[in-house]
Design brief:
Length: about 250
């Protein structure tokens, strides 16, 4: 039987590339989305067309009832969960901290940090032997902004990803005895639609010259690290953060 993987925000970008790569690696994939049902259904259909197994499910990761419903679906449909990729995330508009209102700060943290917490909690309740599970692997999406701080752009986003990294460290140590590995990937500038929401659609091209490898990364290059962390090849890796940033 295939192992079951839930990828949040799997409808496009890094999440969609992760769904495809994981399916090629033998995972049965639950493709999650917030609003883009058609795009997520297309990813699932693409996986099935390639001989894999996948279905789509919607919900807002910042909503506790929605997150509970997503995991209830996994339990009902598959009876187990072996992998979770906390990929869903939002990027706010470019700005300076003095101009941020509280609603912006709270929404960024609600999706990026609280959403990751809620999904981790529900995953542990399915994966841990303490709840009848069989262990598993979790990969959280951080960002180079967690270490660079994102000054003059989105300090709130960087801080939310810093929270994701601290959560990853603590949870990896907490869950080692339960046979659940928890790691993070820290992408740099990756060519996806997320940059449009910064208000500067050309942001990736504008900053690419400052990347030591001289170009932005692709969703597929990021997905390769995520799928490796999920795999048995990474069986002794937990609490790690892998930068996929071209050296930025
Ligand atoms: P993207 O193309 O904008 O895709 C974001 C995905 O997250 C979409 O599937 C979206 O679903 C989903 N999503 C957004 N808000 C959600 C919510 N409240 N609840 C549930 N799902 C939600 O983003 P990406 O560039 O692939 O980024 C993926 C992850 O990598 C994010 O965590 C991001 O912070 C991180 N990252 C990206 C970069 C980069 O350069 N691209 C760099 C560093 C880190 P819908 O489309 O259905 O709304």
């Amino acid at each position: 039987m295939s192992k079951i993987l839930l990828v949040t925000g799997g409808s496009r970008g890094i999440g969609a590339a992760t769904c495809y790569a994981a399916a090629r690696d033998g995972w049965r994939v639950v493709v999650h989305y917030r609003s883009a049902a058609d795009a997520a259904e297309a990813v699932a259909a693409g996986i099935r067309a390639g001989g894999g197994e996948a279905e789509a499910i919607g919900g807002d990761v910042a909503s506790e009832p929605d997150v509970k419903a997503i995991f209830a679906h996994c339990k009902r449909r598959h009876g187990r969960l072996d992998g979770l990729v906390n990929n869903a995330g939002i990027l706010p508009q470019i700005g300076r901290l003095a101009d941020f209102d509280l609603a912006r700060w709270n929404r960024t943290f609600a999706v990026n940090a609280t959403g990751t917490f809620l999904c981790c909690r529900e995953a542990v309740r399915m994966m841990s032997p303490q709840y009848g599970g069989q262990g598993g692997a979790i990969v959280n999406l951080s960002s180079m902004a967690a270490v660079l701080g994102a000054p003059n752009e989105f300090i709130d986003y960087g801080a939310s990803k810093g929270a994701v990294e601290s959560l990853t460290t603590g949870l990896a140590r907490e869950l080692g005895p339960d046979g659940i590995r928890v790691n993070a990937v820290r992408p740099g500038l990756i060519s996806t639609d997320i940059h449009k929401s910064s208000g500067d659609a050309a942001r990736v091209e504008r900053l690419a010259g400052g990347v030591p490898l001289g170009r932005p990364g692709t969703p597929e290059e990021t997905a390769a690290a995520i799928v490796w962390l999920l795999s048995e090849a990474a069986s002794y890796v937990t609490g790690s953060v892998i930068a996929v940033s071209g050296g930025r």
